[in-house]
Amino acid sequence: MDLDAITKHSALHAKPSGLILQYGTAGFRTKAEHLDHVMFRMGLLAVLRSKQTKSTIGVMVTASHNPEEDNGVKLVDPLGEMLAPSWEEHATCLANAEEQDVQRVLLDISEKAAVDLQQDAFVVIGRDTRPSSEKLSQSVIDGITVSGGQFHDYGLLTTPQLHYMVYCRNTQGQYGQATTEGYYQKLSKAFVELTKQAFCSGDKCLSLKVDCANGIGALKLREMKNYFSEGLSIQLFNVGTTGKLNHLCGADFVKSHQKPPQGIEMEPNERCCSFDGDADRIVYYYYDADGHFHLIDGDKIATLISSFLKELLLEIGESLNIGVVQTAYANGSSTRYLEEVMKVPVYCTKTGVKHLHHKAQEFDIGIYFEANGHGTVLFSKTAEMKIKQLSEELEDKKRKAAKMLENIIDLFNQAAGDAISDMLVIEAILALKGLTVQQWDALYTDLPNRQLKVKVADRQVISTTDAERKAVTPPGLQEAIDNLVKKYKLSRAFVRPSGTEDIVRVYAEADSQESADSLAHEVSVAVFQLAGGVGESPQPGF
Ligand SMILES: CC(=O)N[C@H]1[C@@H](OP(=O)(O)O)O[C@H](CO)[C@@H](O)[C@@H]1O
Ligand SMILES: [Mg+2]
């Protein structure tokens, strides 16, 4: 490493004085104008991580569902996973180092993490459609080149596509070709194979309306559409030509407001879905004949997928162990349905996909989804091999089921939750099972729920345990929540400091929307009073 050159370039990417940032749940995120130095430094860090793991590392420039003016960056580890926790700390140290300390911090990290500085480094880069993303990704490239690393810039990509590229490159193409072409081909081939039976049995073509959040999903889905000559007809909305990224549209807007996005024309009972700004989340929804809006979130997606996979396993007579991983935000009805009706074991982890992903790796088939629509399914090597073997050995209906499983393995992006891949899986399952969106929705009824945000002086005064379902500090808060919950039927509530925003999140569910709203409000007031609320005390009504 040419430390003098690094110091020289570092000065060209000056850190705004006093700015402290934390590598959080989804990397660094803040206003785009404050991120140039972070990008440059993450280029430097990606080179060190690549040298240390002797693998290709990914850098994605995106702020997902956040406003267009924001941006962010995260590193992708060798198997397409989120950056290891110890390196998150290194990232935070490097991002916050004063100009003159950058050299020292780099050497410190190299020493602590036993990085062989003679090793080659290779980094791949992707970015979303934000106006600031191109310039910021150039700063990442500056960091990579000045520290002697090699790179490939994929340019515009969805976040899960970048995870996929990293995974492919580090498994010598075994997982697929590390190009967008390779990604489209792998997924569309699996989809066409999987749905062949549904369509040749006389069913018509699937048709779906997609709200692309005015983001990268629109570009990539449009490219991918060419790979389906028949079978799936997709109409794209909010493609970014006029609207602003994530503004009044996209998966996060639909989930948190529980209403349809602007800019989409919906007929009653028509199946629609929304991606978020970097296309790693998806939610479905429809209007019923009475004009009521129905949201089908990540919990219902996990349920549909679990029931399909369980049926196929039953058909082939193989007892691979399935586990469903959720967070505390999963609707209580979904957990009950999975455990009691479907008899599938359910596990709860902390918020943030890295926690769910990690837990899901413990099973032959690990299905994980956050309620907001971020998730995928992981298949162990043993499961993949068994299924492949059975698809060759078995006959007739059993063979067909094993073949379906083989194709569904290929259709999932096992590197990361992926709106495009999940959408294709869902469309295939609905076609194969002959289910309408209403029938899917009717699997169980969500408990009414409400999420609120409370502003406090220091959100870290709240610490939690039991996968964030219980507050340990400040004293008295959990007791207050317990007492409030007792006042309502079928109720549950919890609070936790957000990992991506400077707020405390409050979640409540109960037997009616009125009760859920009122419980959420009362818990917000308790947080405000006991955890140092700032500004005006929370007001009832939404
Ligand atoms: C309640 C909720 O939806 N939280 C989101 C949000 O995390 P917070 O730590 O709650 O701010 O952003 C994360 C990153 O995108 C996502 O993984 C998570 O599910
Ligand atoms: Mg996202």
TrEMBL record:
PROSITE patterns hit by this protein: PGM_PMM
Superkingdom in the source lineage: Eukaryota
EC number: 5.4.2.3
Residue ranges occupied by any Alpha-D-phosphohexomutase C-terminal domain in the UniProt entry: 453-523
Alphabetical UniProt keywords: Acetylation, Carbohydrate metabolism, Coiled coil, Isomerase, Magnesium, Metal-binding, Phosphoprotein
Residues at which substrate binds: 370-372, 496-500, 505
Coiled-coil features, chain-numbered ranges: 380-414
Alphabetical list of InterPro entries matching this protein: A-D-PHexomutase_a/b/a-I (IPR005844), A-D-PHexomutase_a/b/a-I/II/III (IPR016055), A-D-PHexomutase_C (IPR005843), A-D-PHexomutase_C_sf (IPR036900), A-D-PHexomutase_CS (IPR016066), AMG1_II (IPR049023), AMG1_III (IPR049022), PAGM (IPR016657)
Residue ranges of every copy of the Phosphoacetylglucosamine mutase AMG1 domain listed in the record: 178-283, 297-434
PANTHER family: PHOSPHOACETYLGLUCOSAMINE MUTASE (PTHR45955)
Name of the protein in its database record: Phosphoacetylglucosamine mutase
Upper taxonomic lineage: Eukaryota, Metazoa, Chordata, Craniata, Vertebrata
